[in-house]
Amino acid sequence: MKLIVTGGAGFIGSNFVRYWLKHHPEDRVLNLDALTYAGNPASLADIADLPNYRFVQGDIADAEAMNALFGEFRPDLVVNFAAESHNSRAVVDPTLFFRTNVMGTQTLLEAARKYPVRRFHHISTCEVFGDLDLDSPEMFREDSPYRPNTPYNASKASADLVVHAYHKTFHLPVTISNCANNYGPYQFPEKIIPLFITLLMNDRPMTLYRQSLNRREWLHVEDHCRAIDLILEKGREGQMYNVGSGIEKSIEEIADLLLEALDKPRELKTYVDDRPGHDRRYLLDSSKIRKELGWAPTIDFDSGIRNTIQWYIENRTWWKALLQRNALDEGEWGDFKGPHPWKSGP
Fold this sequence. Notes:
Layout: E1 2-6, H1 11-23, E2 28-33, E3 53-57, H2 63-73, E4 77-80, H3 87-92, H4 94-114, E5 119-125, H5 151-170, E6 174-179, E7 181-183, H6 192-201, E8 206-209, E9 215-220, H7 221-234, E10 240-243, E11 248-250, H8 251-261, E12 269-272, H9 287-293, H10 301-314, H11 316-320
Parallel strand pairs: 1-2, 1-4, 2-3, 4-5, 5-6, 6-10, 7-9, 8-12
Antiparallel strand pairs: 9-11
Helix pairs in contact: 1-7, 2-4, 4-5, 6-8
């Protein structure tokens, strides 16, 4: 089997590439990544020399390059992780998000149509459904209406619709997974858990939005990789699968948990105004993938977060090299000015 994994130098993508080569050592994996600020080849340094692994730097929105690559490699499977994915950056540069997430996905689909694949699997997000009230009894189902609130969310929702359209119009064999917030090793330190860990390790304050009781559903990245594997093996064409743990934690709870784990004072919590379009809560109904494919998360949050903290403690060289990449201030949303917590960091 031959796979093209797009965005495979990012957080979830790099974990998936490593997972796939471990569990399917006979397969060939081509990792396609543009190596923007969050792409890091060092995340896969340990497997770079494997004979069945190949890395190609490229832009998924470049039709000529994608056609050439698909024509040469002739993949059986495509797993599309490639995306601009940080809500705050999408407020600053929404055009970039629509170019990569919508036009890039369509370019890949067109290449997969020209050079037919067995399956095109698209990685989406719970955020396409909008948000829930903090006290709502509801959960997002696969057939919940799309109500994105931010440019990032809207770009991912648009990409989902393009994937569905290519299935209905061109009969391209596609699947989509909408996942909860992932955490684990190799996550770029702009996301909340690695950002807070790395700041606290250097006795720098964490910046929380004032609506710090807003909740997220947390899923370990390895459980996400297992879900994608099952969808590729047994998932029905044209279907969407929610991948969630059912474990919710507020941003305040995450901050307090990390303070305690790293034995840091509560004074290292600071608060700023929320970014525009800040969602309150996401929670997925993942009963479909559990019933149809037999998937269930295997990593409980307590052990998963402990292992994640330990990974960042033991891999300071990996994340320290990333801190100055395209730093973004989240302190003053009115004019986007002010120092990022890491701009003057070590």
